[in-house]
Amino acid sequence: MILLKDILYRVGLEQVIGSTGVDVRGIEFDSRHVALNDVFVAIKGSVVDGHKFIKQACDQGAVAIVCEELPELIINGITYVKVSDANMALAYMADNFYQQPSKELVLVGVTGTNGKTTVATLLHQLFTKMGYGVGLLSTVENKIGNTVLPATHTTPDSVTINRLLRAMVDAGLTHCFMEVSSHGIDQNRTLALDFDGGVFTNLTHDHLDYHKDFKTYRNVKKQFFDGLKKEAFALTNQDDKNGAYMLQNTQARVQTYAQKSLADYKVQVLEQQISGQLLKINGQELWVKLIGGFNAYNLLAIYASAELLGADPMNVLQQISTLESVSGRFQYYVAPNGVTAIVDYAHTPDALENVLGTIADLRTGNETLITVIGCGGDRDTTKRPKMAAVATHWSNKVIFTSDNPRSESPEAIIAQMEAGVPAHEYKKFISITDRRQAIKTAVQLANSGDLILIAGKGHETYQEIAGVRLDFDDYKIAMDFLNDQTT
Q1: DSSP string spanning 76-106?
Q2: pTM
Q3: What are the sequence ranges of the domains in the chain?
Q4: Cα–Cα distance, 158 to 152 (Å, whole number)
Q5: What does the pLDDT look like over 237-255, one tens digit per residue?
Q6: Helix intervals (H) in 339-449
Q7: For residue 418, what is the DSSP state?
């Protein structure tokens, strides 16, 4: 138990009714989870307004309510705290409740459109290999050392973040690497955290369903770097046109990395094949298992971050050469019949072009490239025709299919994709709504030496249709169909 007044430190209080000297067992922002002696924080979400559930929270035993609007019914014995921004209040309260765990860790945040998962996950791999106790907060999974916990959001809510960070501290860990999403920044989930470093990967078209326009999306990302302390490092991709903008107002120590520009950290791609590539990082050559120019950027960001955190550069290079690809990120399987299937999470036009461009660099020109691609429902609709145009431009054959249609009609999503295909490339594509059937068809169309790219879902092991999550793993399904072809 902790006193309410102790977890209100740094929270901007507009009005308090009742005592802040009451004991608090926990913090909840979902009224369904409120129990005796909890404090309930009423959040105005995009779909649900927590203020509607204040009475329910009180009935379930809440000892205090934090809200932006005081309810008409004030119940004796319950403390009400009015704040201007409940998300900000929740961030500070969670940080205080768990005794500011981020201050006891070396915490590095990774943000950008593409590459966040790969950079954060490989940093976890790298520092683990170098003997550190390391935590991870990512889209794919959360880790406390080697203990894996499921991830539901790229950036969890403030309470979950701080609970996990406290568990990391209690487990004796020293470092944590986390993805920082634009949603997480905008909703102040990371507001109270004490970051020792920030990494910017790139910025391309994504999440405009939430942010409405690219400028807003970009400025939200920038807020993360604006908030870094002067003792931290701020590492940016100098080749990205938004890289310098991100760090305009940061107090942190600015560092840059690039393939094409002058920068503090440089990488060259010397050679690549399906099994890996030869890189030169700051003058040192090394062979790595991850391929593609986009992964050259990711690995350079990892090298730079490790050096900025005090690791020995030669040891870092040695360990980077052993790093394994992240699940669902250019994950490939060569079937006995000579067909290669590649599964990748690419779900933005830029990410898809990066992957297809990498495949183009690996091709001899004699093989056929078949791409299976869909777009998610209830998300940014403006990228759908762009994704289709990219796919048909780079591929010999394309199958448009479902991704996670969620509450939308899969056929309507595919129709929006089809609208982006130039007239001269109409003959390249077919549309198959059922994703399993689409993958099966791609396998049936492929001959020895051909390549199949299955894009959009990557590591996900489910497909969400009409509110129901069904088991679905692109990689496993592709392997099964490919192996069936050879039996």
Answers
A1: TT-EEEEES-HHHHHHHHHHHHTT-GGGGSE
A2: 0.88
A3: 2-97, 101-320, 331-485
A4: 13
A5: 999 999 999 999 999 999 9
A6: 349-362, 384-394, 410-418, 435-445
A7: H
